[in-house]
Design goal:
With 104 residues, this protein is an all-alpha fold. The protein is 62% helix and 0% strand.
Length: 104
């Protein structure tokens, strides 16, 4: 007798579970295990997302703090520079000369 796809020497009922209860019990435990693993993965991903959001917020705060500190530092340099001397850090808003831009 040939198998289900016409293959010789393979019985058509090979590997088929006759007892539906046995299949349901095995299948349910496998699905429960997979479901548990997916829940754990989901929990880990949620935790990573929270940490990422927290780090992103802290990074933005640090960048803003840095920006304010630079502006204050430039303001102090501007007021502390005697007239006629070059500034160490030209203001970003003021136009730079060719030499300051690095032009030829």
């Amino acid at each position: 007798m040939s198998g289900p796809n016409g293959d010789p020497n393979i019985p058509s009922d090979d590997g088929i579970i006759e007892d539906e209860d046995e299949f349901n019990e095995e299948g349910n435990t496998e699905y429960a295990a997979i479901n548990t693993m997916l829940d754990q993965i989901n929990s880990c991903l949620d935790d990573l997302e929270e940490r990422n959001d927290s780090l992103n917020g802290k990074l933005h705060e640090l960048l803003e703090s840095n920006r304010q500190a630079r502006q204050e530092f430039r303001g102090q340099l501007t007021t502390a520079t005697p007239p006629g001397e070059e500034k160490l850090f030209p203001d970003q808003d003021s136009p730079a000369t060719e030499g300051e831009k690095g032009g030829e």
